Amino acid sequence: MPGKNVRFDMTSILQSNRSPSLSPTSFNQSGSTYNKPLHPVESRINLNPNLSTRERHIHWDLTLPTENARVHPGFTNDQATKPALPSMTIICEALPCPISVVESQRGYGVTVMDVLRTIYTSLRTQLSEADFKQLSPDMQQKVSDAFRHRYRSIGDEKVRAIEKSKGLKLVDMLGRKKVFAGLQSTMWGPDIWELCLSSS
User: Fold this and answer.
1) How far, CA to CA in Å, does 189 sit from each of 18, 20, 23, 106, 179?
2) Cis geometry, peptide bond prior to residue 190 (ω within 30 degrees of 0)
3) Cα–Cα–Cα angle for 58, 111, 81, nearest 5°?
4) Exposed (0-12), middle (13-18) or buried (19+): which is 12, by Cβ within 10 Å?
5) pLDDT tens digits in sequence order for the chain, 200 residues long
């Protein structure tokens, strides 16, 4: 029997003001799905061009810390949007739940670095054995392959062993598409953005 789809409860997300969290509780057989708009809605919020899918000023393998991202240091403290937002929600088709980003400096608004750091921290969340077992065999293989590739790519033997011992993480659900490709607007509001991915 096919597993039922898991869809984001966008009403709850829009009404929520909680601090950053990423707590996967259930998966469908192939990962998360949600209704994607045919065309993003018009928004009065302008995204920082450095975070957009058009500019691609940030080259970052999401399996690596933000320090490994090729980012111009001059704009990391710039506000992520104009006008500034105190919080943003980021969704991704490959992930089972949204990522909540809040401003690190009260009253200044979410910055580019706030976005990058929160994405990285959220993707480091452990993927439990129970959650893994709910995935389809194909998805389990994809996640397992990504996990093996991630820890085997670490040069230091001791660090590699430590990372292997930590087990599966949400970042492994990205598979081969694990490179940051920017954010794009969604139909759900000016503070909800979709994380786009690429394989290179």
Assistant:
1) 17, 18, 22, 22, 25
2) no
3) 90
4) exposed
5) 333 333 334 344 344 433 333 333 334 444 554 444 444 444 589 999 999 998 788 999 999 999 999 887 778 899 999 999 999 999 999 998 899 999 999 999 999 999 999 999 999 999 988 888 989 999 999 999 999 999 999 999 999 999 999 999 999 999 999 999 999 999 888 899 999 999 98
